[in-house]
Amino acid sequence: MQTKKFPYVMYWILIGIGILSFTIPIFQEYGIITTLILTLLCSLFSWAIAMGLRKRKFMYLSVLLLISPWLLLLSRYLIN
Q1: For 30, phi and psi rounded to 5 degrees?
Q2: What's the domain count of the chain?
């Protein structure tokens, strides 16, 4: 029973780390570069897990995590 839950737990941990990486620019001057790299890695690995689970909604969440830092940069550019 434990092995069936493990991919889901790993998926949500990776998504959580990717989302929490948006706090890095608050504490570092060039933290957006770290955020881009961290969200890229987290989204790719979570997308691979979602492919293994064959969950389309999880794949969509992984792609949204992949493009979210770029949307953040675009919104900062448009606001300033």
Answers
A1: -110, 45
A2: 1
